[in-house]
Every structure is written in structure tokens, then in C-alpha cells.
Amino acid sequence: MLGLHYATPWPNRGLVSARPLRRSPSHHLLERAGACFGSKMGWERANAFAPSGQQPVIEYSWGKPNWLPCSVAEQQATRCAVAVFDRSSFAKYLVSGPQALAALRWLCIANVDVASGRTVCAGMLNASGRYEADVTVTGVAAEEFLLFAGAAKAERDLDDISRRLPASGGLGNEAVGAINAGYPIESLCPEKAYRAFMRELTPGFIKAGRCQVSVGGQISGATISLRPPFDPDGEKVRR
Question: In this structure, are residues 229 and 236 in contact, taking their beta carbons and an 8 Å threshold?
Fold first, then answer.
């Protein structure tokens, strides 16, 4: 924060020191497309895209920000055409071991007893019944599950999961690991876009004329997880 200590406290002002720290595999593509980057848990994330011919700079203001028209254009393009969102900053955890399913059943309110290749949305509650985290659980193998959660609480959620694992059953903290740097996440929107994409990529995801959402699998070494549009930070995307 030293770099901003005497700076004007603009609304939504981003950090400037120690950047860039973490960049996704598609960072160079976003940069080439005119992205104005912000920072979240050390990750460089595209906040808006400057129009062709303009510098990708966010001008902080007390009034209407210069990025607002860019955001409007992006929303319209997403609704009417196709858009790819880089969500690699989202938290990713791998829960594995003989008691992995028992641990997730203890932590989650949804039925997480999913076969390999299936995905389910699950809330994690505390002892008072209040939400601690909103996660997506994907079955990877018989004793292995991949979890996705919001970027802002990556360390906090990992600590919470590790602390609240059931003491019985021989399940220790070593069964949970963060793999944030190992898996990028790209979201394809809207629904018709990923239907067409998956139809071209692998016919196995299309059955009876319908795209099979909430499924996952390995395609040419890449893990593919499909689910209805959803924001793990807590809000469903309107269609």
C-alpha cells in the first residue's frame, strides 16, 4: 500500500505496487485485445477492454468512469454474440483420499456423491447454518474431487475447509490442497455458445439434442467442466 499512501483515494482504485504478480495463460491474448487490468488476490484480471485505437487506461473519477461504455459494449456482445471470460483467478482445491467424499458430505449441503465427470453446485455452511463458501464440486476419480470457489476468498476458504474437516475417519489436512496456479479457467458465454463449442469439440457431451451441463471430463489432456452460467462469488448470471 506504500505506493498509494499519498494518492487520491478514488472509487475502485486499484493497486499499483508489486504488479504483475500472477498472470493466466491467456493474459497475453487479453492484453492484445486492449484489456485494462485490475488485481485480485495477486492475479491480473481484465476489468474492461478499450476500443480499438485507444489506450487501455482506466481514468479514475468521482463521476461517470471512462470504462462504463466499454462495459456496456461487452455486456451486449456477451448477450448477442459470444464471449470468453478468463476466470483463472478463481480458487481451485483438490480434495483426495479414502475419506474425501465423507469430508465433502460433512462440509457441503448439496449431494456431492457424484460420479467421475459430474459437477454439482454446493454451499458450505458453518455450525450456525450460515454460508461460508459457494463452491463447484467436480468428481475427478473415485476418491478425488476438484473444487472451484471465488477468487477473493481463496486463502480464507482453504483455511476454513482445513479447520472444519471431521476429526474422525482418519482424514487429515493433507487431503486438501490448493492448485490455483495449475488450472486456468475459461468461461464461454452465453449458453448457445458453449453448446456449439462442445458440439464441435466432442459429440459425447451432446445427448438427445441437449447440451449436458454439469458434467466434466478429460479432452486431449485438458479438464473440461460444464455447468449452467454461475458466479462462484455468489450471484447467478441472468440470461
Answer: yes
What is the CA angle 21-34-87, rounded to 5?
50
Inter-residue contact 78 to 180 (CB < 8 Å):
no
**Which residues lie closer than 8 Å to 21 by C-beta, 6 or more apart?**
39, 42, 43, 44
Distance separating alpha carbons of residues 98 and 95, to the nearest angstrom: 10
Residue with more model confidence, 202 or 30: 30
pTM for this prediction: 0.72
Judged against a pLDDT cut of 60, whether residue 43 lies above it is answered with yes
- Over the range 141-179, which residues count as b (16 or more CB within 10 Å of their CB) and which as e? eeebbbbbbbbebbeebbeebeebbeeeeebeeebbebe
Distance of CA 191 to the CA centre of its chain: 17
Cell of 95: 480434495
